[in-house]
Amino acid sequence: MILLKGAEVSAKIKEQVQTELAQMEANAPGTAAPKLAIVRVGERPDDLSYERGATKKMESFGLRVQSYVYPADISDADFKRAFAAVNSDPDVTGILLLRPLPKQICEKDVEQMISPEKDLDGIGPANIAKVFAGDETGFAPCTAEAVIEVLKANEIPISGKRVTIVGRSMVVGKPLSMLMLKENATVTICHTRTADLKGTCRQAEILVAAAGRAKMLNADYVGNDAVVIDVGINVDENGKLCGDVELESVQELASMATPVPGGVGAVTTAVLAKHLMRAARQSR
Ligand code: NAP
Q1: Which residues pair with 207 in a beta bridge?
Q2: What is the CATH architecture assignment of 142-265?
Q3: Using CA atoms, how far apart are residues 110 and 251, in angstroms rounded to an integer?
Q4: Would the CB of 261 count as within 6 Å of ligand 1?
Q5: Global pTM?
Q6: What pLDDT does 284 receive?
Q7: CA 29 / ligand 1 centre spacing (Å)
Q8: What count of other Cβ atoms lies within 10 Å of the Cβ of residue 117?
Q9: pLDDT per residue over 161-175, tens digit each?
Q10: Domain assignments of the chain as residue spans, ordered by start
Q11: C-alpha of residue 282 to centroid of ligand 1, in Å
């Protein structure tokens, strides 16, 4: 089984971003690099870890990044006022809103507020609609797009393939199914009510795990020569980071698979950088 390493895919995206940055600088010398605003409420460890990873990635790509941090008990009105200011700041090229937001803030309202042209993670209705319409001018959620990037960077054909996605969230499963469809895959989406999950997964030529269940997909779920993409980020019984796939048990079956950590996660932040460049291009 070949391990599909996220770092290699991220390095390819870095090259594209840096070439484009150099062109931008050549066309308009002295212009500041595009800036990502990371908006965080509270101190959730998941958010902090994502923020650290995204900040490191932006800086290593030569992009600017600034975190806007608010207390966990901020009121709905105060947060919306602060968010509106970030959203309308001309120096902010794109926004990453760390979610879920605390309960007192109406997340739906914030999704409606974000400017479509700064909505790098595709959370607002305009971008969701574009992804579902197959319109490439929209921003797809970075994780969903990262799965496509991993396949393309490794020259794994998608067109005509049986793709099964375990998970139907708005962050991963649903938008990814649309991106796969756009690539002409034959897509099956599984969830907790899927009757024969093992059998359905075994039929897949490309199996994407996005259930958020530690090591749930073992050899019973993987067909011969399948390509397995693991989106899951979980903590196992020993407190170690792990995916949704039990990698050791599928080694003899899968032809290729992404590890966790070191797989899709590393590509997600690279896609964020790519989206930031696109937002900059479209706004200049
Ligand atoms: P989510 O909102 O909890 O959705 C999980 C989906 O998986 C749901 O549709 C659920 O089905 C389905 N599911 C859960 N358990 C299942 C089971 N036993 N059998 C079949 N289907 C099952 O999670 P998410 O936000 O999509 O995230 C999924 C995973 O990806 C998490 O581990 C998350 O940490 C990770 N993630 C990674 C990245 C990255 O950059 N790599 C980014 C975002 C998320 P129902 O709809 O029927 O409940």
Answers
A1: 164, 228
A2: 3-Layer(aba) Sandwich (3.40)
A3: 43
A4: no
A5: 0.97
A6: 78
A7: 44
A8: 16
A9: 999 999 999 999 999
A10: 29-115, 142-265
A11: 32
